[in-house]
């Protein structure tokens, strides 16, 4: 069934294309005014958005897993007559948890004291002060902040307190969230390649932050994987020092008694001298065994230390990553065109 409306044909509720083009042409002045106004407003909006730069770093972790990682250590232990037992196993923090680690409150707070410098060297200091004083915002956001500061009395505090992760202030929470928005971590589930990305309004700051992010992530993972091995090594070093001191005392006691009773041949003297010699030998055996165990523990620390291959290093970006102002203007103009067309069709 056909209906006529102002000379245009509608069939089955759909407007024919020739009628649509004719309708657009008849209202071309409306389109010109709307698109021109949209272009000016969207251009002003896009220009007001601060530019930001993006820097990426690619890491490929290399881990020794399972019992194979203990092969060389097991060989040393067997030579020393020491059984290491089942010291392998899986890590609690796997690469898929790295994004959660980076977005954690403790990790973000640790970034407060990172020393940075802008490309034009207009600022040199901590990331915390940089975020509080050197971040550009759109004019409407700055206006809202100005109004907020006008009606809200701001506390003046010259000293910067160390943040407590257990109880953060409102300002510290907002600051940590702002820093978290700059940091991004993606892990390829197939290859385990880690992609670290940092966006910032300054290209040099972006590169410095992503390099710091890489260093601190590597340090955290290394400390986590080697913590037990380092504790064991520290304990064995303490036992070795105590054994060395005890051996020295037993040896001196044996030497002193031997020199003092060199001309005596009584069975009592011989028996006591043999006892002192046996005690010194026992202390030496304990000390020697601990020396071997210390070397094994040191090898264990090296075995547990992960190696990270840097596939792509941080490079100061030359061009901004956004905002893409041309696409923003085109998107607004497209929406204005579609909205105007819909309004005209409904009106006609």
Task: Briefly say what this structure is.
Helices cover 59% and strands 13% of the residues. The model is unreliable at 1-13, 65-89 and 153-158 (pLDDT under 50). Helix 2 (28-48) runs antiparallel to helix 11.
Overview of the structural elements:
With 348 residues, the protein is α+β, with helices and mostly antiparallel strands. It folds into two domains: 2-48 and 327-347, no CATH class; 53-148 and 165-322, no CATH class. It is 59% helix and 13% strand. The protein has eleven helices and nine strands. It has a four-stranded antiparallel beta sheet. A three-stranded antiparallel beta sheet has the order 1-2-3. Strand 1 and strand 2 form a beta hairpin. Helix 2 (28-48) runs antiparallel to helix 11, helix 3 (71-80) packs antiparallel against helix 10 (267-304) and helix 9 packs antiparallel against helix 10 (267-304). The longest helix is centred in the middle third of the chain and has 58 residues, at 203-260. The two termini are 19 Å apart. Mean pLDDT is 82; it is low at 1-13, 65-89 and 153-158.
């Amino acid at each position: 069934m056909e209906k006529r409306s102002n000379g245009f044909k509608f069939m089955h509720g759909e407007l024919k294309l020739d009628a649509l083009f004719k309708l657009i042409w008849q209202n071309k002045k409306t389109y010109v005014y709307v698109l021109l106004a949209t272009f000016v407003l969207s251009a002003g909006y896009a220009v007001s958005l601060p530019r930001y730069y993006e820097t990426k770093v690619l890491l490929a972790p290399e881990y020794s897993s399972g019992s194979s990682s203990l092969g060389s250590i097991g060989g040393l232990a067997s030579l020393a007559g020491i059984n290491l037992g089942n010291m392998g196993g899986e890590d609690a923090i796997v690469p898929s948890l790295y994004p959660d680690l980076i977005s954690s409150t403790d990790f973000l707070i640790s970034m407060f004291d990172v020393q940075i410098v802008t490309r034009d060297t207009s600022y040199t200091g901590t990331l915390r002060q940089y975020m509080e004083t050197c971040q550009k915002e759109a004019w409407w956001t700055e206006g809202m902040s100005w109004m907020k500061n006008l009606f809200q009395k701001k506390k003046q505090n010259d000293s910067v307190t160390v943040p407590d992760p257990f109880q953060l202030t409102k300002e510290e929470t907002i600051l940590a969230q702002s820093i978290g928005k700059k940091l991004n971590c993606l892990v390829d589930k197939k290859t385990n390649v880690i992609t670290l990305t940092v966006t910032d309004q300054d290209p040099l700051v972006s590169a410095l932050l992503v390099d710091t992010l890489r260093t601190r992530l590597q340090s955290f993972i290394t400390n986590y994987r080697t913590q037990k091995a380092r504790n064991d090594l520290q304990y064995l070093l303490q036992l070795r020092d105590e054994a060395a001191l005890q051996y020295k005392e037993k040896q001196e006691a044996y030497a002193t008694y031997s020199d003092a009773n060199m001309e005596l041949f009584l069975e009592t003297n011989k028996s006591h001298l043999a006892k002192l010699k046996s005690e010194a030998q026992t202390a030496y055996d304990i000390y020697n065994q601990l020396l071997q165990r210390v070397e094994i523990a040191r090898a264990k620390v090296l075995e547990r230390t992960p190696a990270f291959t840097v596939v792509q290093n941080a490079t100061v970006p030359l061009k901004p990553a956004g905002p893409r102002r041309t696409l923003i203007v085109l998107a607004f103009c497209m929406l204005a065109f579609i909205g105007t067309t819909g309004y005209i069709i409904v009106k006609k």
